[in-house]
Design goal:
about 100 residues; mainly alpha; globular
C-alpha cells in the first residue's frame, strides 16, 4: 500500500491527509509489533500489547475499507495505472510468501 497506493494518493491534495494518516497508523502497528517481540510471549505484558495492537489494527482496517479505499476508488488514469501495475506485480510474490 505504502509503496504504490499511498504514494499515488500523497500526490493528490484531496487525498494527502488521509494517506498520511494511514501511513502513520501503519507505523504505529509496526512499532507495537516490535514492542511485542521484546516481551516474553504469553506474558501479561505481551497480551496487553497484543490487544492494544489488535484494536489499532482493526481500527486501521475499518478506516481503510470505509473511508480510504472508497475515496481512492475512482478509476486511475492510464499513466497512474501504468505506474502502479509494476509495483504491485513486483511486491505480490513477496507478500504472498510472507502470508504463508
Amino acid at each position: 500500500e505504502e509503496e504504490s497506493l499511498y504514494a499515488t494518493m500523497l500526490r493528490d491534495p484531496e487525498l494527502r491527509d488521509d494517506a498520511r494518516h494511514s501511513v502513520s497508523e501503519h507505523k504505529e502497528v509496526d512499532d507495537l509489533l516490535g514492542e511485542m517481540a521484546d516481551v516474553e510471549l504469553g506474558s501479561d505484558a505481551w497480551s496487553e500489547k497484543f490487544f492494544h495492537m489488535r484494536r489499532r489494527y482493526e481500527h486501521h482496517i475499518t478506516e481503510e475499507e470505509e473511508e480510504m479505499f472508497p475515496a481512492a476508488s475512482d478509476e486511475p488514469d492510464d499513466a497512474t495505472e501504468a505506474e502502479l501495475a509494476p509495483i504491485y506485480e513486483q511486491r505480490k510474490p513477496e507478500e504472498l510468501e510472507l502470508a504463508k
